[in-house]
Amino acid sequence: MKKRIGWAAAVLLCLATAATARVNLNFNHYFDRDEVVATLKQLNQEYSGMTKLRSLGKSEEGRDIWLLTIHNPKTGEELDKPAVYVDGAIHGNEIQATEVCLYLAWYLLDKYDSVDMIRELVDTRVFYIVPTVNVDGRARFFERASGYNIGRTAVVPFDDDNDGLVDEDDYEDLDGDGEILQMRIRDPFGGWKTHPKDDRVMVRTQPGEIGEWRLLGLEGIDNDGDGRLNEDPVGYLDMNRNWGYQWQPYYVQSGAGEYPFSAKATRAISEFIVSRPNICFHWAFHNYGGLFVRGPGSKLSGLYSPGDVQVYNYLGEEGEKIIPGYKHVVGMEDMYTTYGDFGEWMYCSMGTFGFIGELFRSEELRYRKPGQDEERKAVMDLQSTADYELQQFNDNLAHGTLFKPWTDFDHPQLGRIQIGGWRTFTTRMHPPFMIQEMAHRNAAMVIFTARHTPEVKLELLDTKDLGQGLTRIRVRAVNMNALPTLSGRALRDRLARQDIFSIEGKGLETVSGGVVQDVVMDRVDYVKHRPHMIFTHVPSFGKRDIQWIVRGTGKVTVTFDCQKASNRTLSLEL
Ligand SMILES: [Ca+2]
Ligand SMILES: [Ca+2]
Ligand SMILES: [Ca+2]
Ligand SMILES: [Ca+2]
Ligand SMILES: [Zn+2]
To answer: 38-140+237-360+442-449, superfamily in CATH?
Structure first.
């Protein structure tokens, strides 16, 4: 009996422990706008000592753009700690980026007490998290009839078809099912036929073959009578083409906006980032490809510094192991050219390292035998093959919920058509049962890069009496993390202040000083002026040795003053 009580008590204790998460979140569904805001407020309230929640400003439709700062003030000043900036859903329809941000925030706070590595990280770093950049676009996804490609733009009027009318032909939910899906109409010369094994799937006709269907695009009518459907919907301003480095106007870069930072969110966020020189890494999450993307985004940016590329390669290659199937790629080379995107502004104007995270991989959905990819490439119409496979996933894992079967509908202008297709929360969205693992792995990748923000240890190498009242002092700054205290780009273009090593003491005269190039060969780059202050930086996985020759005695203080790593001081007695 005694034994049994012990066992029951143990179970109760276990349950109690499991239930002590201070904020319980379920990553088995998508968080709508209200739930995102409520979650941020809850985290902020529960962890008030370590979080700050503030609105960076309002969107075009008046929604707050929330920023959650995670910082422990008991372990130092915010601006004296290296910071990682993380955001999501600058493209409003790429909604799961927000879940990654929320999961990251929750994980850092929830594990603070129980996981040593997380506590140490949170005590020594700052996290700036903007879960949703395009708050209007993402809200539309939940609040109004939408489709998986709708909501990418900022809600800024733009005349897409150049007819002098603005946003005059948007989509309509014709059948009133709350979603904007595909339309098709019978047409033997329409270029499409039905898949022989699955009548939900469309296959392109071969040359000489009579078809069955013509695809009409998304649901809607020709609102302005110009003979075209949905040709001028809301927007289009792509906030990831609206940043101030190598920005190009809309006739070069579609979606650029009228001028750099013309969207409310890009303006508000850029002002915040400029006010935080401690940011040394950025993450911006999107939703397609399974990628860690770095720049250059266009030829105009020039090549990235070789040393910086090594840092990117180290982090990217480790990341490929943290998230199976993800690839580390270069935007311009492996994807397409972009102008005025966020990552490029961060690297080329702010001098920070970072990745654009592309979350969803269609390959995750279905198991393929080794070599099957090669077989697939031999298939003439790869898109139909992929669509067919996706239907099997839809049937066997989602039980038909991802696709709306084609259904007859009488279109007011076109007559008898059919409406159907992949539903709103599909195609580039993880099915709900996969959200948590996706969010955890990507948060873990953010944490991995945060652990590699620079951390400098300052140590005294030696002091040597040179006679005639002169002493040589050598200090060493060691950084065993991947990120240097200054990127090669920032150094080249003077984007951020260099680190300052300085020496002072009462009555101390600094005769000379400089960076030691070779401590064995005694080679030093002496500075000409003001030798008590040495401007330099601490490299990736490396050290910087500084030497001074001073005259005087007493207490001497050496200071390492850095924007992108915590400052250090060292005292000695001469
Ligand atoms: Ca127009
Ligand atoms: Ca428009
Ligand atoms: Ca509909
Ligand atoms: Ca029209
Ligand atoms: Zn995107």
So the answer is: Zn peptidases (3.40.630.10)
